[in-house]
Design goal:
Elements: E1 16-17, E2 20-21, E3 29-32, E4 41-44
Antiparallel strand pairs: 1-2, 3-4
Length: 45
């Protein structure tokens, strides 16, 4: 999408998805999303 306006993209990093921030999750980890945000937990693959 950036190449269409003359700006090539070398690296694209997602830092959030909706209300969920991803900046405290290391590479190779994922977070299980529960109904209640206070119950979130991190897991390593």
């Amino acid at each position: 999408m950036t190449a269409a306006v003359g700006l090539p993209t070398l690296r694209l990093i997602r830092i959030a998805s909706g209300d969920y921030r991803l900046d405290d999750i290391a590479s190779g980890e994922y977070r299980v999303i529960d109904a209640h945000p206070s119950q979130r937990s991190k897991h390593r693959r």
